[in-house]
Automatic annotation (TrEMBL):
Domain of life according to the entry: Bacteria
Oxidoreductase among keywords: yes
Pathway named in the protein's UniProt entry: One-carbon metabolism; tetrahydrofolate interconversion; Amino-acid biosynthesis; L-methionine biosynthesis via de novo pathway
Catalytic activity annotation: (6S)-5-methyl-5,6,7,8-tetrahydrofolate + NAD(+) = (6R)-5,10-methylene-5,6,7,8-tetrahydrofolate + NADH + H(+)
Enzyme class: oxidoreductase
Cofactor(s) named in the record: FAD
UniProt cross-references to InterPro entries, sorted A to Z: FAD-linked_oxidoreductase-like (IPR029041), Mehydrof_redctse-like (IPR003171), MTHF_reductase_bac (IPR004620)
Higher taxonomy: Bacteria, Pseudomonadati, Pseudomonadota, Alphaproteobacteria, Hyphomicrobiales
A biological process from GO: tetrahydrofolate interconversion
Record key words, sorted: Amino-acid biosynthesis, FAD, Flavoprotein, Methionine biosynthesis, NAD, Oxidoreductase
UniProt-listed Enzyme Commission number(s): 1.5.1.54
Entry protein name: Methylenetetrahydrofolate reductase
Residues annotated as transmembrane: none
């Protein structure tokens, strides 16, 4: 319980998804502005399978680049696309100034759990996509990892072998699928280290805005819902206020326990909402940072001109 007395330095990153409507765009930007002063290491923007959000992801990443001082990471999937199409997207991002990608295979359009078929002229999986990215430029590359195993993977050894191949091809960070069982995360990191993989395995944390939805999604992506977690949210379907307090308590408990286990980096699935993530970051010791000196200096120079 050392953290309760001292405050280690914590690094965070935030994940957003590209908005579909103007209203959603407003919500996203309000969240970006609320969270930006916490000085995340980077913010990432998801990419719909098969490029279904290609334009919207690009637009969001470009706005982050041009309107904020945040460093964006563009998610990119290779499912249902030829190498040529994917490479074109990569080059477009590079021309916009993007230097960091989250390289993913993605799921077939028919949904998670459906047997994956690589595009005949495409990158077969994230391992190949990482190599493809590196062949184009020396980008920073993050990838996925699964503390409770990817649902299509026959065993942990296969999963960790895939992770190792992604690292061998140039990935330097993995963000995990969300999980609620910290023991499972710790066991996974031990397995990864035993396999000779030393990149950061950053826990993916999802604050629970809607337990019913998360429970449904968990079943599809292989994250378990412990009985104690289901019990905490029992009967709160029509009580958003209590649900929100419980969600904050559950999430702070999870991250503080991870800090006690030595974790210092967190990747938050924000769902484009800032309130819970902001509170959890506050509990982790993060405080709004003043504007960077050169920015202030530039503003001052502009004002006195
Ligand atoms: P890979 O790493 O290529 O493979 C995943 C697993 O499948 C492997 O670990 C392995 O166990 C098994 N596997 C794959 N190929 C083989 C093979 N040839 N032989 C044996 N086993 C194999 N999805 C989106 O559509 N857009 C996003 O923006 C997005 N962002 C994500 C961000 C994070 C941090 C995470 C964890 C997931 C994200 N996903 C996203 C979901 C992801 O696309 C799915 O989980 C998908 O099913 C696998 O993608 P991957 O990159 O993990 O695949």
């Amino acid at each position: 319980m050392a953290f309760r007395q001292t405050r280690p330095r914590i690094n965070v990153s935030f994940e957003f998804f590209p908005p579909k409507t103007e209203k959603m765009e407003e919500t996203l930007w309000a969240s970006v502005q609320r969270l930006a002063p916490l000085a995340p290491e980077f913010v990432s923007v998801t990419y719909g399978a098969g490029g279904s959000t290609r334009e919207r992801t690009h637009h969001t990443v470009r706005r982050i680049l041009t309107e904020t001082r945040l460093k964006p990471a563009a998610h990119l999937t290779c499912v249902d696309a030829s190498r040529q199409e994917v490479d074109e997207v990569i080059r477009q991002y590079r021309d916009t100034g993007v230097r960091h990608f989250v390289a993913l295979r993605g799921d077939s359009a028919s949904g998670v759990g459906e047997k994956y078929r690589p595009h005949p002229e495409g990158y077969a999986n994230a391992v190949e996509l990482v190599a493809g990215l590196k062949a184009i430029d020396d980008f920073e590359i993050s990838v996925s990892a699964y503390p409770e195993k990817h649902p299509e993977s026959p065993d942990f050894a296969t999963d960790i072998d895939m992770l190792k191949r992604k690292v061998d091809n140039g990935a330097t960070r993995a963000m995990t699928q969300f999980f609620f069982d910290n023991d499972a995360y710790e066991r996974f990191v031990e397995r990864v280290r035993r396999a000779g993989i030393y990149i950061p395995i950053v826990p993916g944390i999802v604050p629970i805005h809607d337990f019913t939805k998360i429970a449904r999604f968990s079943a599809a992506c292989g994250a378990s819902i412990p009985a104690w977690l289901a019990e905490r949210f029992e009967g709160l379907e029509k009580d958003p206020e209590t649900h929100s307090h419980v969600a904050a308590a559950v999430c702070s408990e999870q991250v503080l326990d991870l800090v006690d286990r030595g974790v210092r980096d967190f990747h938050f699935y924000t769902m484009n909402r800032a309130e819970l993530v902001y509170s959890i970051c506050h509990i982790l010791g993060l405080r709004p940072q003043p504007e960077e000196p050169e920015e202030n200096a530039a503003a001052a120079a502009g004002a006195s001109a």
